[in-house]
Model the fold of this input.
Amino acid sequence: QVQLVESGGGLVQAGGSLRLSCLASGRTFSIYAMGWFRQAPGKEREFVASISRSGGSTYYAGSVKGRFTISRDNAKATVYLQMNSLKPEDTAVYYCVRYSSSSTVGSWGQGTQVTVSS
Done:
């Protein structure tokens, strides 16, 4: 079973930036697509971004497109989420995910809190 460990969350003012990291255990990191989801208080968990195995293809939710960038370093078994121009509505717990071969989410990290103050 893979372990996904997120880091980099915290408190930031609106307009600021944060970079989240997710370190995956195991030796098969490069054969899986990866992504990020988030869940705000009182709301359902929602898709944020995903990245293909090679990193050549990326996908974003409309609410973050142009502000967030997902990337990965297969040699370090790490996926990143660079978040710029943060807004109070970006406040949420952010989860790293690993997709299965059927393109559904197979594994979740424990989450990291991001709080954006106005």
